[in-house]
Model the fold of this input.
Amino acid sequence: MPDTPEESRVAATDATLDTLPKLLLDRAARSPDRDAIREKDLGIWQAWTWREYRDQVRAFACGLAALGFKRGDRLAIIGDNRPQLYGAMCAAQALGGIPVPVYQDSVAEEMQYVLEHAEVRFALAEDQEQVDKLLEIKDRCALLETLIYEDDRGLRHYDQPFLHGFAQVQARGREFDASNPGHFEAEVAKGRGGDVAIILYTSGTTGRPKGVMLTHDNVVITARNSAAADGLRPDDEVLAYLPMAWVGDNIFSVGQAFVTGFCVSCPESGATVMHDMNEIGPTYFFAPPRIFENLLTTVMIRMEDASALKRKLFRYFMAHARRVGVDILDGKPVSFTDRLLYRLGDVLIYGPLKNTLGLSRIRIAYTAGEAIGPEIFEFYRSLGINIKQLYGQTEAAVFVTMQPNGEVKPDTVGKPAPGVEIKIADNGEVLYRSPGVFECYYKNPEATAETKTADGWVHTGDAGFFDADGHLKIIDRAKDVGKLNDGSMFAPKYIENKLKFFPEIKEAVVFGQGRDYVSAFVNIDLEAVGSWAERHGMPYSSYQDLASRPQVLDIVQECVEKVNADLAGDERLSGSQIRRFLILHKELDADDGELTRTRKVRRNTVHERYKVLIDALYSDAKRARVETEMTFEDGRKGTIKGDVEIRDARTHAVLAKAS
Amino acid sequence: MAKERTNGEVLLDVDNISLSFGGVQAIQDVSFDVLRGEVRAIIGPNGAGKSSMLNCINGFYHPQKGTITYKGVKRSQMRTHEAAAQGIARTFQNIALFKGMSTLDNIMTGRNLKMKVNFLLQALYLGPARREELEHREFVEKIIDFLEIQAIRKTPVGRLPYGLQKRVELGRALAAEPELLLLDEPMAGMNTEEKEDMSRFILDVSDEFGTTIVLIEHDMGVVMDLSDRVVVLDYGKKIADGTPDEVRTNPDVIDAYLGVAHD
Done:
């Protein structure tokens, strides 16, 4: 990385600790008895101290070495967040190898692509489910030699010679370590900051996934800078529940944990996250907007069922929080009586609510990945939860911009993160350069050249601008910003986000590029609308059934018209009001390729699959018939048919330019 | 499917059993055996006497004729708690859980027979009682982990969906560390996905703990996939006994299921 700004290199505290394994050994030497990573097992939180973490990594690394793992070899890691899997990642790095975490919900075919492309020889799977997928694709991945599993449940009768248990590998490793003393230390010492630390496959909204290669420098320096910016401390608590294949987890649960020495907790299972969070009480928390939305929806639904007195109290104090809560959090002047009332609210409502959500100890919470609804954002901030937005990419090792404490606005993504330079291209695209900028895409020089310039600037592909306070505001994907036939600007994501801010709407896709007007597909939120249906005594059998009810269409129509009213107020966007919409007969699904694994809409696929419906939106039709293929969780395929009603929404007069 | 589950030792031998309620002949001269470690299915149309058969095995009903030999010991008028003490556990066709208690507590009740300390010590949670409680709790946690029901550990079972209640019931039966597990329609009323999950748990119980399983089930696909051997009952009589393939092709079985007129 020759083009890194020199000052950020200086900012790194100890230049000799330039790889993650070196940091781990240092941690284990300096605070051996502090908890490093925990997991809930058999209902009890079990922790590894830093010394145990190191010993586990050491044993597994030596085991890998005994199995023939060499420098530069790739180790695929597939499973939920588990201390053993984090340990294995570091063990591979200790030997100069490269871990390749894979999304655990990938179907076999997706997994095969990644394993083949990354030329993986070793794979570690969490359990039988993942082992079965690996065995299914093993014949097609010529280089894949050795499979290791963590949980032996159900694997007792698997007798393939290339299949090993995690504990057995560690046992072999301890023998190897005894007969090759110093091997581990020597291998760790060979590591350099410029070595590739990890390959992360980005699902990407178009085409095949790309393998982003991040070096130890990328991860370590970014982790140091961001930890310093937010004042992270060794006594912080983090819950590692987001996929290990996602770049953020590698910064929040690995990089920053190693740099500052805080303890990372792994939930018991995907279904227990909220409960585990309540027990751990994280102080530093990351969640995509979707999770904050879901939490809020759950709270609202449960409040509807509460007694009249509780509902009244809740409404009264929430209104008060909305009025003064954010100012109190930002340290702005607030009158004494308002402060007193807020205190009372904290005792009666805010405190218990935060406790139920597991958010009572939060010092810093981040959300990113997508725009968050301003109301949701304000809801959490008004409770005194310091939730902030950041803008990041896998290619940047997360951080591009972040909101500094006290300078938080719902509609921007903040100021450049430490060490990051940003410029806006003529076409509005945002470019950045930072110590976190990735090395290249693995085996894909064309894509690398398209994304990263010779002097280290990375094209984000997002269009945006800086506001008066120097905060970056992102509107849409640069390539998605288009024009309607009458020449007015069309920013689909901007409109979709406005739609998705309504709790009743889960997903939206709008069309308009090269058309006369804007129209929209909507997915309703089954939980929110379902609860509404229940309260109104409306039985329904499935998503499709609920989505075709006229009353539900009325609700969505109301939302669409509110968005139109909002858009009409913006001179540049008033031409993009939604003229016609429909509710899709099925939920957009990653298994059908309609969404990426991180749940972003794949526009092209949606265009192809629902052409009939798009055509109908641009005709006078009142209904349209559609048949779609869908994939079940086990990979089988089936078709789903539906009759979809199309509605016209009220639009508002385009504001006169003169006004 | 792995077929070497059993070592050929007979765990349970049912010999010429007959059971009647007043004038109703529920079971007539039925004999079959269950080998240690195998998964044995009892199938048959409604009213064939399947549940009555399970009730005989665990001592709830006492057959008027015939003998039941369990672990080589011929038993006479046995009570249900004696059967439980000998290592026989069961689940019920209509879930029989304590609705107001949590999943954890429900499974804990399955440990009741293993608890040694007296009631008074338990109530005071003193020395040995405390130690014992912790041991049992650990065992129960292993079951919770095994059945993947961590998320509902503290949820009252009355609030759980049907499929999960069935799983909790299986958990309670497993808590007794049975040698012989009797499952009465473990998959009744489940959707395909829930059935697949339950099938996997049943096979895993057999593999991991070596438990001998006798199950009653209506879903033929499930029975054929899960079991090593199948007994077919019809109107209280045994009409076939053998491997799933043998039973599938047996003309009497086809008659019984397709309802060919008996003459």
The first helix of chain B runs from residue 50 to 57.
